Amino acid sequence: MKDEKKIWKKQLISWLTIIIIVVVFLLTAHFAVVWVQLDDNIQRYIASIFVFASFIVIGIILGAIVHELGHLVLGLLTGYSFSRLNILNFNWYKEDGRIRFYTAACPIGQCLMCPPENEKHFKFILYNLGGNIAVLFFCIVLLVLIIILDSSVLALCLFAVLFVNIIMLFINLLPIKSWTSPTDVANILEILKSREAVQAFYKMLYINHQVVEGRRYKDFPLEEMQVAESADLCNYHVATLVLMEAEYWDDVGDHAKAFATWRRLDDIELPNSLRYILNTNLLFYYCCEARDIEKAKEIYAQDGVEKMLNIEMPQFMMIKAAYEFYVLNNKKKGDEILVKALTHACNIPIKGEKLMILGHLERLKTRMNDAKV
């Protein structure tokens, strides 16, 4: 009953949020069209509204690009080195000293940098604020152009881009942790809470960079990602390192220790992105290691899990294959998903990630074949 109320409340909040966004958009579009004097007849008015809506979408894309480039530039200026940049389906990464490019589905934007070798020179505030600083300058440039340009249509287009970027900037300056991914300001405030949070954030960046360079988790000394029992796991940067420690144990083949490490986060309130990762890993464990069908079904029913498993990325397809094969007893479909996951994994350009995922997939393939005998 409590779960049903929680789901209903979440759906209500989602619908109210959508309604508010639509109302704000329509009011802003109306006043923008009136302001640039494109409302002299109904056809022109409606066309102008559609133009405004189109440039809202373009503005979101431009804002994401500017935001990630801001992280990149401020990172380079504060001693970081380039590791990986994702914008829409376009991805750049550094391998063997060269910048390489590939296309693949990814978040709308993400910039990963390698921190300075000396942790004492680790500056994280400007790196995290880089995106917001860049968007602020972008908004100022747009405002100047709107003022000096003598074109109603162009002013309307630029105003749409400016409007959506001001909204995005305002949201990203709020310390919001409850969304799928925390905002940049939330990241900074979380890092500032403790020395162990600073170290966890540093290690997360360093380890991710090394994975891009070709290292697997099991190639690292355990001390690089081990989290003390006394650590504050409520800090989500520290919790991220706990997930990495669990991945280390999983990569070396000690699934019992991986499971025990994941369970440390059971009662911790995590951002949705980390909660989804934790739940999908636990689901895979209950499917393949514990063979606990009821527990696997319970986790699968939790918020966000099914959605994650429908993403066509090999690490999620692997878990879906295991769920179909062991829990739903649909061995044919499980095999088909696994074959597809292996094909996708072979095309992963990131060396360390590719080695780890292929290792997990081959181990699952062996287990599934043995189960048929």
What does the secondary structure layout of this molecule look like, with pairings?
Elements (H helix, E strand, L loop, with lengths): L1 H34 L6 H36 L3 E7 L2 E6 L2 E6 L5 E6 L10 H24 L3 H21 L11 H8 L3 H19 L22 H17 L2 H9 L8 H17 L4 H8 L4 H5 L4 H14 L3 H16 L4 H22 L1
Antiparallel strand pairs: 1-2, 1-4, 2-3
Distance between the termini: 43 Å
Helix content: 55-70%
The major sheet is characterized as: 4 strands, antiparallel
Please list the strands of the largest sheet in the order they lie side by side: 3-2-1-4
Q: Helical stretch count?
A: 14
Task: Give the low-confidence spans.
Answer: none
Mean pLDDT: 89
Radius of gyration: 23 Å
The overall number of domains is: 2
What is the 3D shape? globular
Secondary-structure element order, N to C: HHEEEEHHHHHHHHHHHH
Strand element count? 4
State which percent range the strand residues make up.
5-15%
Structural class: alpha+beta
Give a quick set of tags describing it.
single chain, 4 strands, 373 residues, alpha+beta, 2 domains, four-stranded antiparallel β-sheet, 7% strand
Write up what this structure looks like.
With 373 residues, the chain is an alpha+beta fold. The chain folds into 2 domains: 2-173, no CATH class; 195-372. Helices cover 67% and strands 7% of the residues.
